[in-house]
Write a structure and sequence with these properties.
This protein is an all-alpha fold and 141 residues long. The chain has 5 helices and no strands. Helix 1 packs antiparallel against helix 2 and helix 1 packs antiparallel against helix 3.
Length: 141
């Protein structure tokens, strides 16, 4: 009996510009991770040193809150579907910080505000997962 070979799938290689966009995603995750560390610094300085740092904490997020959206678009164009969905989840988690913030008059002093730092931990972990999913320092064939 002759072995059956699977049919050969003829696909074109991905265009270089598409693959290049996908390679930007881990670098975006690295920038996001640095911004998260700065956010944590502002929150800590606001709690333990000077209240004015809490304004920095509230306003600095606007500098990077849509970075996961750009990362998701780049991952989608490069057809990196798991990475794209992780970036969309990051965007949702970052946007969920607003209703959980203790600055919000609706949640100040409630249990919802206690989830603000927990959600920040989840954002940090998922950012590291996106970064390590395809590390920028690893050469791929």
């Amino acid at each position: 009996m002759r072995p059956v070979t699977p049919p050969v799938r003829l696909t074109r290689p991905m265009a270089r510009w598409r693959a290049g966009l996908g390679n930007l995603v881990p670098w975006g995750a690295l920038v996001l991770l640095v911004c998260i560390v700065i956010q944590v610094f502002f929150a800590g300085a606001g709690l333990f040193k000077d209240d004015s740092f809490l304004e920095w904490h509230k306003n600095f997020v606007h500098a990077f809150e849509f970075l996961p959206l750009l990362m998701a678009i780049a991952a989608g164009i490069a057809k990196r579907w798991p990475t794209m969905w992780m970036c969309i989840t990051l965007l949702i988690l970052i946007e969920a910080q607003y209703p959980l913030a203790p600055f919000n008059p609706d949640t100040a002093g409630t249990w919802a505000a206690a989830f603000h730092p927990v959600n920040a931990i989840l954002i940090t972990i998922l950012t590291v997962v996106v970064l390590l999913h395809r590390p920028p320092w690893r050469k791929t064939a």
